[in-house]
């Protein structure tokens, strides 16, 4: 009986650490995706500035460009939060 209890405790501890490692790896992946997403947003903002300076088209008002970037940023954050919430449950 004592052996079974000890075995189950070991199994439970192993499961705990295995799940903990999986969560940490998943959060690392999410963190990297978040970083790449924000870096991509920064690159888009920079490209938008270059294009508007060159006059390839009628430049967007800065407030409109900023609003587009903020919307994309907000959508990215919601996606990351949703993924994190899904992984937690």
Level of helix content?
Answer: over 70%
First and last CA, distance: 33 Å
Task: Based on Cα principal axes, name the global outline.
Answer: rod-shaped
Question: What is the overall pLDDT average?
Answer: 82
Largest sheet: none
> What order do the SSEs take from the amino end to the carboxyl end, as H and E?
HH
Strand content: under 5%
The tally of beta strands, per DSSP, is: 0
Number of helices, counting only DSSP H or I runs of 4 residues or more: 2
Low-confidence stretches: none
Class computed from helices, strands and strand pairing: mainly alpha
Gyration radius from CA atoms, angstroms: 23 Å
Structure description:
- The chain is mainly alpha-helical.
- Helix content is 90%, strand content 0%.
- The protein has helices at 2-54, 62-88.
- The longest helix is centred in the first third of the chain and has 53 residues, at 2-54.
- The mean pLDDT is 82.
């Amino acid at each position: 009986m004592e052996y079974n209890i000890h075995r189950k405790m070991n199994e439970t501890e192993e499961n705990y650490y295995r799940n903990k490692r999986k969560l940490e790896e998943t959060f690392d992946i999410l963190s990297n995706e978040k970083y790449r997403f924000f870096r991509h947003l920064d690159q888009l903002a920079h490209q938008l500035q270059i294009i508007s300076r060159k006059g390839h088209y009628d430049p967007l008002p800065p407030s409109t460009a900023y609003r587009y970037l903020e919307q994309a940023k907000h959508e990215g954050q919601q996606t990351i939060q949703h993924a994190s919430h899904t992984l937690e449950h």
